[in-house]
Specification:
single chain, 2 helices, alpha+beta, 16% strand
Length: 77
């Protein structure tokens, strides 16, 4: 029926279930089993303008998620 089976796996629960099914099918039909895994790489800014843009976006997100800070006077030692 099948001589080779290729299973893709992204590490998700569904991907692991698909891998289990592929292993079982390969055993049943005595097929070779190959697996491809995918990992998302982080994106890094390519220019100083992109660095500044990402910093501004992060500061905006942070400002929305944190309460305003009050300045406390320093205590005398």
């Amino acid at each position: 029926m099948y001589s080779k089976i290729l299973a893709a796996n992204d590490g998700s629960p569904g991907g692991l279930m698909a891998l289990d099914a592929a292993i079982e099918l390969a055993r049943q039909v005595s097929a070779e089993l190959h697996m491809v895994t995918v990992e998302e790489l982080p994106r890094f800014p390519a220019s100083i303008d992109e660095v500044a843009e990402e910093k501004d976006e992060a500061n905006h997100r942070f400002a929305q998620s944190s309460p305003p800070q009050r300045h406390r006077p320093a205590r005398p030692a």
